[in-house]
UniProtKB/TrEMBL annotation:
Domain Cilia- and flagella-associated protein 61 N-terminal: 10-243
Name of this protein: Cilia- and flagella-associated protein 61-like
Protein's gene: LOC114246391
Organism domain of life: Eukaryota
Stretches assigned to the CFAP61 dimerisation domain: 1120-1234
Residues annotated as transmembrane: none
Source species taxonomy: Eukaryota, Metazoa, Ecdysozoa, Arthropoda, Hexapoda
Length: 1375
C-alpha cells in the first residue's frame, strides 16, 4: 500500500491532508479510526502533469467518460482489514454524497506486481473496476492500472417518479415532520386529493423511493407571479425568469446537443441581436440604485402600503407568489451572463454574498504594492489609462455621510419601476421538499435533476423561503438573488434560482486564447470598465507573469479570471494571520479580476479548484484596497469569486525593536490598509452555506464591531456566510478616508479597533451599513423604525448601542425624579390599572447649538475639529472671534477631556485660548472621589503639565446653564461650592454625562423591553423579547442572576461581542449537531461542524425557535471574560499614556494596596518616564501603567499582560537586585521581540498540546490519587461512544503536556494545603514553598520538560526564520 501511494512516513500523510481536496476518516463506535482516504483532482502519476491528465487518461485508457468535473483520484486509501469492503464503500459513498457532480472515484496502481493493496483482501476493492491501458508492444498487466469506482455501484441514486394516490400514506408523515399545517388545512388525504381530483392543476408531485417505499417528496408548480417577484428582487441577470424572443447564443443543456461555437454565433449575427436585447433591458433599469441597503422608506400617509403580519408571512411562505396564468412556453433561452449597468453612486455599497453586478468595477490595483514596482506594472498601466479621466469621489466625505439617509429617501419616493420583461414563462417553482429522516437530504439533488425533465421548456427553478429558514443541502445548487431596495412585498423572504445548465450542464475551464475576445466582448457588454478588463485580458496573452482562464458551460464562455504573482508575499503574511512562508517559493498567486455568470455561482469553488490545478499556485490571494487613493485606488472591484474565499484577520503591528534593516523591509507599513482573502485546495471542496436570517445590529460600538467580525471572520467563515446582516449607526462605521492627526489624538484608543484595523477588515463586503438613527422598535411586526421614515425588518435584533457623551440637558426630568426616589421620597405615578393611566413617553432629544461639540468616535472628532477650524476662519474678522477673551472651553473629568485638550494644541490653538473646566470631585457626595487615572502620580503630572502650558483651569466647577443667541452659545455659567463663574464661549467640548442615546432609550422603553438602569439581559444576552438581544456597556443583568459585579461594562467589549457571536454561530450553524444544541447556549466556547451532514431541526432557523423557555428561567452563572482592559491616550504636553488592567470592576488603588496577597509593585521613574508594573501573588503581570514623554508601542507593552515574570528572564529578581532602573528600556530589548508576536501564543499552545501519553502512564500511579485510579479502571471496562467533533475521552492518547502538569499541580497542591495547615510559616506567593519545589523539579525531569520545550522552540525558530531574519538558526538535533 505504501509503495503504490508513495507513502514513506507520517509527514507524507500530513502533506496529503494539508494539500488534498478531500480527506475522509472512517470511525468505529468507539471513535477509533478504522479507515482513511485522501482524494485530489489529478491522478498519482509523477510523469503526468496535473493539467494533462485528461488527455493522458483518454489516450492510454480510452476512458473518455472521465473529466475534471466528475472525477476524483485517490492518493491514499487504507483501512483496517477487519472491516474490509464495508469500510471502503462507506468512505467512497461519503465522497459521492459530498459532491453530487462526482460520478467516478479512481486510483492508479503503479506497481504491476502488486495489483491488490492488501494481499488476500481482493473483496475490499470490489467496488473498483480495472481499466486496461492500451500501449503497443507492452502487455497491459505491466502498465499502471486504472481502477475506477462508479457512482451506481457504490452510491446508487434513488428511483424518482411522479407521485400516485397510493403514496399519500407515505408522504404525509414525511411532510408532518417539518410542518402539520397542510394536514390541518386540507385533511389527512390532501396528497391523494391533489393527484386524483385536480389533475388539471399546475402542481406536479415527485417522489423518490427506496425498496418501493416513498422516502422523499417534491412539489413543483408553474403558477408564478413574475411581476411581484421582479418588483422585489433583482432578476435582470435572469431575464425576469422569462424567455427572450431573440435566440440566445447559449444552448440549454441537452444530452444530444452538440457544442455551439462562438465563431458560428458571430458569423450568424446572433451576438449582435443578444447584445441589442441586453442594451434595451439595461437602459430601462438605469435608474436602479444599489441593492445593498435593503430599507423600506415610508413618506407621509399611504393607505395602499400594508405590511404583512405574522400570519400573512407564513401564508406567503407556503404559497410563494401564486396566482397568475401563463401562456405557452417558447423554445428560446436567455443569455444568463448579462451584467447590469454601472452606477457611480454609493461607492462602497458592495455585496460580496450576491455581488450586485451593477456595482462592480475592475480594480485599478489589487495585488501589487502601492509603489507600483511589480513585474506587471506595464500591464496595470493599461487598466489605469481607462479610468484616468474618471470622476474622483471621496466616498467617506463628511457631507456625503451626513446626507446619505436623505439621498436614499429622496431617490425612493415610490416603488421601483424595475425592468418589464416580455416573453413566455421560463421558470417553475419548488413549493415543497421533504425527506424521510432515515435518508440523507442530499438525495434531493436527484429529484431536482428529474424536475427539469418534467419541464423541458423551462430553464429556471426557483425557491422562495423565509429569511430565517434553515439552510439545507439542496440550496447549495441555487443562486441567492439580491433583493431590491424598495420592495414592499416578500418582506423577510429570500429567493433562490437554479439554472438547468448549473444542475445538469457540463463545466470546464481552460486558458484564455485570442479567439475568446469576441465572446468576452459579448459577455462583458454591460460590465463596468469592460474595455479595461478586455485590455487586461489581451495583455495576459503575451505576458509571462499574468494568466487568464475562461470558464465554460456547455463549451460556452460564462466567466473569466485573471491571475498574477503575489508581490511582497512575505510582508503580507507577516501583517496578516497567515503562515510565515508559502509551501514552496513562487506558489502564492493573486486574483486580479474575475467575472462569472450569476447562475453558475454554485460552481465557484470548483472553478477555484481548477485554477489551482492549472496554475502553479497553491494559494490564491485577493487584495482589496477599498480606501486607497491615486493609482492604488480600486474604485470598484470586479470580483465574482470572493465569496468562495476566506477573509483573513490582520495582525497587531509589532515594531522592529531589533533595528534590523532586513526586518524593516519585511515589517514596512503598507501605505493604504487593505482587506485580504485567501483560498487553498482543502477549502475548494467545502460546502458554502448561506445563513439568510435578517440580523440587525444597532450601534457601531466595540461590542457590535466584535460581534460582526466574529460572525463573518470566525472559525465558520470557511463554510458559512451570513448574507443578510445590517449595521445601523448614525455615522456608519467609525472610520474615515482622510483623518486629521489631531482627530486621532482626540479619541483615546480602547481595544483593537483603530482606524487602520477597521480598514483592514472587510465590513463593507459582508454588512449592509446604514447611516441612520433608530427611533422605534415594532416587536409585533419585527421591524425597527429609522429617523426619516425608514423601516427595516429583522429576524434577530442585536442592540449594542453603548454609552456616549450626551447633551447637558439629557433626560433632566427623568433623572431628577430618579434621584428623588433614591432618597426615599414616594413615587407619585398612576398605576396601570387606573383608567387615567398613560404610558410614559420620552421627550425627543434636544438639538445641539452649532458651537457645542460632542465627540464619541473618530468620525465625530474629525468632523468637529474640521467644523472648529472652519468656524475660526469664518469668524476671524467678527467681534466674537476666537481670542483670549472668547476661548474654547473643554468641560469634563475623564481621559477623553484631556485628550481633547491635547488635540486642540495639536491643531495649533494657543494654550491661552483654551479653558479647561474640571468637575472633580463629582457633585454627587456618594460617588468615589478618585481621579480618572486611578493613579495619583500620573494625575499630578498631568495637572502640572496643564499649568505649565498656560491653560486656564477651573476646578470643582459644574455646568449650570448657558446663554444662547440664535443657534450659538455665547456664555457658560458654572457653579462651584463658593462662587459662580460666567465664561464667554467660542466653542464648547462637553464631556459630561455618558449614557445611552436618547433615541435608543426612547425606542427601548416604548416597545416594552425591560430597562432597569440598563437594558436587562440574561446570561445568554437575551431580553424579555426572544428575538432581541443586548450586549455592551448599556446593559445590565437581571436581578435574579445576582451579577451586579459582572456587568458587561466591567469587561473588555471585544470579548462580550465575540461571546455573543459564538452564541449565534452555535444556533444558526446548520452543521452543528443536535447534541450541541442540548447545551442550550450555556457553553459558547466551541464550534461544531460536520462536513458531510446537516443537522435536523425545525423549518425556521431563528435563534428564538431553539431556545427553551424553561431553561431561560433557570438560574445559570453569567460569563466571565479574561481579556485585559486596555486604554491608550495622548495627553497635553504631549504625554503618552497607557493603562492595562485585569477585567472586572476597578477598585481605587489605595483600596487595592490594602488588600491581602497583592503581590509586588515595580515602579521606575527615570527622566520623567513613569512605569508601574504589578505582579499578582502568582507572579503574573496583571496591571501596567505608563506615562512617558516619548512615544512607545502600546501594542507591544500590552502583550506582557498575563505572562509570568519568569518569561522575562526573572524580572522580579533582577528588579529587586537593582539591575533594572528603566522598565521602558527593559521591555524593548531585542531578545524580547519574539514574545510580542502573535505567533508566540501558537508556540505556547503547541507545547501545551504535546502528547505525552507514555509518560503519563508511567507517572500516573505516583501522581494520581487512589480514587482517580479506581474510577479510571471502572470507566476503562465500559465501552465509550464518542460523538464526532466534541468531547474528550480519558484514553491515554488524548493526554497532553498541559493536562499532565495540571493533574500534578492539583494533586500536589491538595497535599500541600493539608500540610500547610500544620505549618506556622505559610507561603504566600508563587515559588516560596521549598516542599513544592522538590517534587516539581523531579516531575519536570521525569517527563523530559526541557526536551519538549527546546524541541518546540527550535521548530518555531526554523518556521519563522524567513519573517524574522534576526532569529538564530537551530541545530538539527534539537528539531
Amino acid at each position: 500500500m505504501s509503495m503504490n501511494f508513495r507513502i514513506n512516513d507520517s509527514h507524507n500523510i500530513v502533506n496529503l491532508i494539508e494539500n488534498g481536496i478531500l480527506s475522509v476518516c472512517q470511525l468505529d463506535v468507539n471513535g477509533s479510526i478504522v479507515g482513511f482516504l485522501c482524494a485530489r483532482e489529478y491522478p498519482l502519476i509523477p510523469s503526468v502533469h496535473p493539467v494533462a491528465w485528461e488527455e493522458y487518461v483518454w489516450t492510454k485508457y480510452k476512458a473518455v467518460e472521465l473529466n475534471a468535473r466528475n472525477t476524483m483520484f485517490l492518493h491514499l486509501l487504507c483501512w483496517n482489514q477487519i472491516y474490509g469492503r464495508e469500510c471502503v464503500d462507506s468512505m467512497l459513498e461519503s465522497i459521492f454524497m459530498h459532491d453530487p457532480y462526482v460520478h467516478h472515484v479512481a486510483m492508479v496502481k503503479c506497481i504491476g506486481s502488486r495489483t491488490i493493496l492488501v494481499p488476500g483482501q481482493s473483496r475490499s476493492e470490489g467496488s473498483f473496476r480495472r481499466v486496461q491501458a492500451m500501449e503497443r508492444g507492452i502487455p497491459g498487466d505491466q502498465l499502471p492500472g486504472l481502477y475506477v469506482a462508479d457512482r451506481p455501484e457504490v452510491c446508487p441514486r434513488l428511483r424518482v417518479r411522479r407521485a400516485v394516490e397510493e403514496d399519500n400514506d407515505d408522504i404525509v408523515p414525511i411532510i408532518e415532520r417539518y410542518s402539520t399545517r397542510l394536514r390541518e388545512l386540507y385533511g389527512e388525504f390532501y396528497i391523494s386529493e391533489l393527484i386524483s381530483r385536480h389533475p388539471e392543476s399546475d402542481r406536479v408531485l415527485l417522489v423518490c423511493e427506496h425498496k418501493e417505499l416513498a422516502v422523499g417528496v417534491m412539489c413543483l408548480n408553474t403558477l408564478i407571479n413574475y411581476e411581484d417577484l421582479n418588483e422585489s428582487f433583482e432578476l435582470m441577470p435572469f431575464a425576469g425568469l422569462r424567455k427572450v424572443d431573440t435566440l440566445s447564443i447559449y444552448h440549454k443543456y441537452s444530452a444530444g446537443d452538440s457544442a455551439f461555437s462562438v465563431s458560428s454565433a458571430v458569423s450568424s449575427g446572433l451576438l449582435e441581436s443578444a447584445s441589442q436585447f441586453r442594451r434595451t433591458s439595461t437602459e430601462s433599469s438605469a435608474h436602479y440604485r444599489g441593492t445593498k441597503s435593503k430599507v423600506t422608506w415610508l413618506f407621509g400617509e399611504d393607505e395602499c402600503i400594508n405590511f404583512p403580519g405574522e400570519g400573512e408571512k407564513e401564508l406567503t411562505h407556503d404559497v410563494a407568489g401564486l396566482g397568475r396564468d401563463e401562456s405557452e412556453e417558447a423554445d428560446a433561452s436567455f443569455d444568463v451572463t448579462s451584467i447590469l449597468d454601472d452606477d457611480d453612486d454609493d461607492e462602497l455599497e458592495f455585496d460580496i454574498v450576491n455581488i450586485a453586478t451593477d456595482l462592480l468595477k475592475l480594480p485599478k490595483y489589487l495585488s501589487y504594492d502601492a509603489l507600483g514596482k511589480g513585474p506587471a506594472e506595464s500591464f496595470l498601466k493599461i487598466i489605469e489609462g481607462s479610468g484616468r479621466h474618471a470622476k474622483k469621489e471621496t466616498t467617506y466625505d463628511i457631507n456625503l455621510k451626513k446626507d446619505r439617509v436623505k439621498t436614499l429617501a429622496g431617490s425612493n419616493n415610490g416603488l421601483s419601476d424595475g425592468t418589464n420583461y416580455s416573453g413566455t414563462p421560463n421558470a417553475f417553482l419548488l413549493e415543497l421538499f421533504a425527506m424521510h429522516p432515515d435518508y440523507d437530504e442530499r438525495h434531493g439533488f436527484d429529484m431536482l435533476e428529474a424536475a427539469y425533465e418534467l419541464f423541458p421548456n423551462r430553464d429556471y427553478c426557483i425557491v422562495c423561503l423565509p429569511s430565517n429558514h434553515v439552510s439545507f443541502p439542496l440550496l447549495e445548487h441555487f443562486t441567492l438573488v439580491a433583493p431590491r431596495t424598495t420592495r414592499l412585498k416578500f418582506v423577510n423572504q429570500t429567493l433562490y434560482v437554479a439554472h438547468v445548465n448549473s444542475v445538469r450542464g457540463n463545466m470546464s475551464i481552460r486558458p484564455g486564447e485570442a479567439f475568446d475576445v469576441p465572446a468576452l466582448h459579448n459577455l462583458l457588454d454591460h460590465a463596468p470598465r469592460a474595455q479595461a478588463l478586455l485590455d487586461l485580458f489581451d495583455s495576459t496573452l503575451t505576458s509571462r507573469t499574468l494568466q487568464s482562464y475562461i470558464m465554460l458551460s456547455e463549451n460556452q464562455p460564462i466567466g473569466m479570471v485573471v491571475l498574477g504573482p503575489l508581490e511582497d508575499g512575505t510582508t503580507i503574511r507577516v501583517q496578516y494571520d497567515l503562515e510565515p512562508e508559502p509551501v514552496r517559493p513562487g506558489t502564492d498567486g493573486s486574483v486580479l479580476a474575475s467575472v462569472i455568470s450569476p447562475v453558475l455561482e454554485p460552481h465557484r469553488r470548483w472553478f477555484m479548484r481548477e485554477l489551482l490545478r492549472r496554475s502553479q499556485y497553491s494559494t490564491l490571494f485577493w487584495i482589496c484596497r477599498l480606501f486607497a487613493k491615486g493609482e492604488a485606488n480600486p474604485g470598484r472591484n470586479l470580483m465574482s469569486l470572493a465569496d468562495c474565499m476566506v477573509p483573513v484577520h490582520p495582525r497587531i503591528s509589532v515594531p522592529n525593536i531589533f533595528k534590523n534593516k532586513i526586518l524593516d523591509k519585511i515589517l514596512k507599513d503598507v501605505a493604504t490598509p487593505f482587506a485580504l482573502w485567501i483560498i487553498e485546495r482543502p477549502l475548494c471542496s467545502m460546502p458554502k452555506v448561506y445563513v439568510n436570517n435578517s440580523i440587525i445590529v444597532v450601534g457601531a460600538s466595540r461590542t457590535g464591531l466584535a460581534f460582526l467580525e466574529s460572525l463573518f471572520m470566525g472559525p465558520t467563515a470557511k463554510y458559512l456566510t451570513f448574507s443578510n446582516v445590517t449595521l445601523v449607526s448614525e455615522h456608519g462605521l467609525p472610520t474615515i478616508t482622510e483623518c486629521l492627526k489631531a482627530a486621532d489624538t482626540c479619541v483615546p484608543r480602547e481595544g483593537r479597533y483603530n482606524d487602520r484595523y477597521l480598514k483592514s477588515v472587510p465590513f463593507y463586503f459582508y454588512v449592509d451599513v446604514i447611516s441612520a438613527i433608530m427611533v422605534g422598535i415594532d416587536r409585533k411586526n419585527k421591524c425597527i423604525h429609522l429617523k426619516g421614515g425608514g423601516v427595516k425588518y429583522y429576524d434577530e435584533l442585536v442592540l449594542t448601542c453603548g454609552h456616549q457623551f450626551q447633551h447637558p440637558d439629557y433626560l433632566t426630568e427623568s433623572l431628577y425624579l430618579a434621584k428623588k426616589i433614591q432618597k426615599g421620597e414616594p413615587c407619585h405615578r398612576i398605576l396601570m390599572d387606573n383608567i387615567q393611566y398613560k404610558p410614559d413617553r420620552v421627550a425627543a432629544p434636544r438639538d445641539l447649538p452649532d458651537n457645542v461639540m460632542l465627540v464619541n468616535s473618530l468620525f465625530e472628532a474629525n468632523m468637529r475639529l474640521r467644523i472648529l477650524m472652519r468656524t475660526i476662519t469664518d469668524f476671524k474678522e467678527k467681534p466674537f472671534c476666537l481670542s483670549e477673551d472668547n476661548q474654547v472651553i473643554v468641560y469634563g473629568d475623564c481621559i477623553e477631556a484631556y485628550s481633547c485638550v491635547a488635540a486642540l494644541l495639536e491643531l495649533g490653538i494657543s494654550p491661552s485660548m483654551i479653558v479647561f473646566v474640571e468637575p472633580f470631585p463629582p457633585e454627587d457626595s456618594n460617588a468615589l472621589r478618585v481621579n480618572c487615572f486611578n493613579n495619583e502620580t500620573i494625575d499630578e503630572r498631568v495637572q502640572a503639565n496643564l499649568e505649565s502650558l498656560g491653560i486656564r483651569i477651573y476646578r470643582r466647577c459644574y455646568l449650570a446653564s448657558w446663554r444662547q443667541v440664535d443657534n450659538r452659545v455665547e456664555a457658560l455659567h458654572f457653579m462651584s461650592s463658593v462662587y459662580a463663574i460666567r465664561l464667554p464661549c467660542f466653542a464648547l467640548f462637553c464631556y459630561g454625562l455618558k449614557a445611552i442615546d436618547v433615541n435608543a432609550f426612547k425606542a427601548i422603553n416604548e416597545c416594552g423591553l425591560v430597562y432597569d438602569g440598563g437594558l436587562v439581559v440574561g446570561q445568554n444576552f437575551e431580553t424579555n423579547d426572544p428575538a432581541i438581544y443586548g450586549a455592551g456597556t448599556f446593559t445590565r443583568y437581571s436581578r435574579r442572576l445576582y451579577a451586579s459585579e459582572r456587568l458587561h461594562r466591567y469587561y473588555c467589549s471585544e470579548d462580550v461581542g465575540e461571546a455573543l457571536a459564538k452564541l449565534f454561530l452555535l444556533k444558526l450553524d446548520p452543521f452543528v449537531t443536535n447534541t450541541d444544541l442540548g447545551n442550550d447556549g450555556g457553553d459558547n466556547s466551541h464550534f461544531g461542524s460536520s462536513l458531510f451532514s446537516f443537522k435536523v431541526q425545525d423549518s425556521h432557523g431563528s435563534i428564538t425557535s431553539k431556545s427553551s423557555t424553561g431553561t431561560w428561567r433557570k438560574w445559570q452563572p453569567v460569563a466571565k471574560y479574561e481579556s485585559p482592559i486596555v486604554q491608550t491616550a495622548t495627553l497635553p504636553g504631549p504625554l503618552y499614556y497607557m493603562k492595562v488592567r485585569k477585567p472586572g470592576r476597578e477598585l481605587p488603588m489605595a483600596v487595592q494596596m490594602c488588600l491581602p496577597k497583592q503581590g509586588h509593585t515595580l515602579i521606575t521613574d527615570k527622566r520623567g518616564n513613569y512605569f508601574r508594573l504589578h505582579l499578582n501573588s502568582l507572579h503574573c503581570i496583571d496591571a501596567v501603567s505608563c506615562l512617558s514623554t516619548k512615544p512607545f508601542s502600546s501594542d507591544t507593552l500590552q502583550q506582557v499582560y498575563g505572562k509570568h515574570e519568569a518569561f522575562f528572564n526573572k524580572l522580579l529578581f533582577r528588579f529587586q537586585r537593582g539591575d533594572i532602573d528603566d522598565l521602558y528600556e527593559f521591555f524593548v530589548r531585542p531578545w524580547m521581540s519574539a514574545m510580542y508576536e502573535d505567533s508566540f501564543s501558537d508556540l505556547l499552545h503547541s507545547i501545551n498540546a504535546q502528547s505525552v501519553s507514555t509518560v503519563y502512564n508511567l507517572l500516573r500511579p505516583k501522581y494520581a490519587s487512589p480514587e482517580e485510579i479506581s474510577k479510571s479502571r471502572v470507566e476503562s471496562s465500559c465501552s465509550i461512544t464518542k460523538t464526532c467533533g466534541f468531547g474528550q475521552s480519558d484514553s491515554p492518547s488524548d493526554i497532553t503536556f498541559r493536562s499532565v502538569i495540571d493533574k500534578f499541580i492539583s494533586n500536589t497542591s491538595s497535599q500541600m494545603i493539608a500540610a500547610a495547615k500544620k505549618c506556622t510559616n505559610k507561603p504566600r506567593e508563587c515559588g516560596q514553598s521549598a516542599a513544592l519545589k522538590t517534587p516539581a523539579i523531579g516531575f519536570w525531569k521525569s517527563i523530559g520538560g526541557d526536551r519538549i520545550v527546546i524541541s518546540h522552540i527550535a521548530k518555531y525558530l526554523l518556521k519563522h526564520s524567513s519573517t524574522n531574519p534576526h532569529y538564530a538558526t537551530p541545530k538539527n538535533e534539537f528539531i
